[in-house]
Amino acid sequence: MNTDADETAIRAVLKTVGQGHHDKDATTIGEQFAPDAVVFDLAPPLAPRFDHQGLAAWLDTWDGPVAQEWRDLTVTTGGDLAFCHGLCKVTATTKSDGQRAEWWQRATVCLRRVDGGWKIVHEHTSVPFHMDGSFRAAIDLQP
Amino acid sequence: MNTDADETAIRAVLKTVGQGHHDKDATTIGEQFAPDAVVFDLAPPLAPRFDHQGLAAWLDTWDGPVAQEWRDLTVTTGGDLAFCHGLCKVTATTKSDGQRAEWWQRATVCLRRVDGGWKIVHEHTSVPFHMDGSFRAAIDLQP
């Protein structure tokens, strides 16, 4: 079902998103999204649209690069649709107190072929939460 | 890009999953998934496979039906792939203390056409968490 060329192109889109985080370049990240993309993000609200200003402000809370490292990234393509899922380790240093933060998140990315390229039309990023009565976000899990 | 027949069939799969929750029938729910489906669930671990026993045990923690109500469910189909995203309100009563629980979750469901039908190959369900330093799972949001 996969075609190699499509999978290569889609992995390049995700790599560009990762490089955009490294460079803290919200514009480059935003260019990978369709204008009407629906984003389910780590933070509320439940279902924002892609939010350039919000992303730029979030990137600016970190000192230096925001690093993304994928694991078990699976890309499924067929015709003009594709979806990807995997685990992504995010590592960065807070600007406020110089603390190194690191967590694993789950990511699902759905894309559509647009004008010969691929645009992200939906992204879902999350961590689970501990069902021990604490309702703590599980940012401490290892794959 | 959508074909009406495919979208109808996919919405029927999601309705069957919802009915399976209502009836607390893990077998019927599991039949909607491909055997190697990767599930990113509300609870840890990060990325389990579809877990029939775990689902059955979870369903058994509730007294009476577990109700699902979708909002803003979008189904995108093309060829032999499809992806859906939307918000889903879950309502149920705990068996332990008879408390009514209700929360909105985000859901992304990716499907593949298999033998003329549709199977869920990936499901991602989550709530965001409050980035106010508390890291509390945001089970209190309204769409």
Please tell me about this protein's structure.
Two copies of one chain form a homodimer. In chain A, strand 4 and strand 5 (117-126) form a beta hairpin. In chain A, strands 1-5-4-3-2 form a five-stranded mixed beta sheet, covered by helices on one side. Chain A is of the alpha+beta class. Chain A is globular. Chain A has one domain (4-126): Nuclear Transport Factor 2, Chain: A. Chain A is built from three helices and five strands, in the order H-H-E-H-E-E-E-E. The interface between A and B is large, with 43 and 43 residues.
Topology:
The structure is a homodimer of 143-residue chains.
Chain A: H1 4-23, H2 26-30, E1 33-40, H3 52-59, E2 62-78, E3 81-94, E4 100-114, E5 117-126
Parallel strand pairs in A: 1-5
Antiparallel strand pairs in A: 2-3, 3-4, 4-5
How would you describe this structure in keywords?
homodimer, 143 residues, alpha+beta, five-stranded mixed beta sheet, 3 helices, 5 strands
How far the N terminus sits from the C terminus of chain A, by CA atoms, comes to 27 Å
The quaternary state of the protein chains shown equals homodimer
Number of separate helices of chain A: 3
**What do the pLDDT scores of chain A average to?**
95
Class from helix and strand fractions of chain A: alpha+beta
- What is the second-level CATH architecture of chain A? Roll
CATH topology of chain A: Nuclear Transport Factor 2, Chain: A
In the predicted model, the low-confidence regions of chain A spanning at least 5 consecutive residues are: none
Biggest interface: A-B, 43 and 43 residues
- Strands of chain A, count: 5
H/E element sequence of chain A:
HHEHEEEE
Round the Cα radius of gyration of chain A to an integer and report it: 16 Å
